[in-house]
Amino acid sequence: MKIPAFLIAGLLLLSAQARPAHAQSIEEKQIAAGKFSFDPAGGYIYLHAPFRQMGMFLRVPDQADLDAYKKDWDAAFAKAKAKYPKQLANWEAEKKAAAVTGAKLGDKPAEPTPETFTIGDIETRYTISFGPQYVFSKDSTNNYYSYLTAVKPGTYIYYGPIMFDVNAGYIGTCYCMGTVKFEVKPGVITDLGNFLMVAVFRTPPNPPRPDVTVTPEGTFLTMGKQKVEVGKLEWGLPASLKSFPSMQADFHASGKLNNYFGISIARLPAIPGILGYQRDKVIDLKAAPAPGVAAQP
């Protein structure tokens, strides 16, 4: 069975995938061998599709995260302020030497200020990646690949089909212009089913893709000689996870995001009852359904 074309590039770059903090991929064989301990204080995300997936979530920072970020920022800012007088003195010395030798002088170092100093975006500290490796379970005969990831409870935003490679950096597409978010509660497996896949394929691709067929019977992806349905929502955990508490993910629209990794950008197609658009404005249809809000791709 062939891998879909849009995954080939990512699968060729699997020399090393980033393993973010607070995230742990779990495999079904660990449960079978008694090597998995369910954490009632932790959170879990389960999802599946008829092919291997890769993706990234952003966890919305909580107060503890904000406090830790401020502590790091304060320490780094103090250090930068302490270094500045020496940096300025070195530049002044270079300036005097350049006046004599005619050497090219670099820019005067800017004094760190609260308005300009940065230690990077807080959002990138809490990225959670999954796939395409480390599947929870797979059945290539029946086109079924699932992923289970242990995470810190909180609110998660689907950032898009993104992965990290040590040679190529971040690759994929971020849904910076419109996506979905959901809550992960402690002591519960949050079941995303195949929602992320269906959200992408639920409308005809624009521009059209030769491997996607939309018929009255459904939307199908051609994988080698097989056609796999990708437009029908499916939920539920496998038998190996039935003994653990679980809940179906409650998706809401999530607004625009920064393109933190400098990759291509897009947005999820509109999802009736969840995600809508008014031109480039993202509308949360669960929070504020409004007449005239288009469920447009």
Would you write up a description of this structure?
By secondary structure, the protein is an alpha+beta fold. It has a domain of 201 residues. The protein has 4 helices and 19 strands. Strand 18 and strand 19 form a beta hairpin. The longest helix has 39 residues. The N terminus is likely disordered.
Question: How are the elements arranged and paired?
Answer:
Blueprint: H1 5-11, E1 24-26, H2 28-32, E2 43-49, E3 55-59, H3 63-101, E4 127-130, E5 137-139, E6 144-151, E7 154-160, E8 162-165, E9 169-174, E10 179-184, E11 188-191, H4 195-201, E12 212-215, E13 218-223, E14 226-229, E15 246-248, E16 252-254, E17 264-265, E18 275-278, E19 281-284
Parallel strand pairs: 2-11, 9-17, 11-15
Antiparallel strand pairs: 1-6, 2-6, 3-4, 3-7, 5-6, 7-10, 8-9, 10-16, 12-13, 13-14, 18-19
Descriptive terms for the model:
disordered N terminus; six-stranded mixed beta sheet; 297 residues; alpha+beta; elongated; five-stranded antiparallel beta sheet; 20% helix; 4 helices
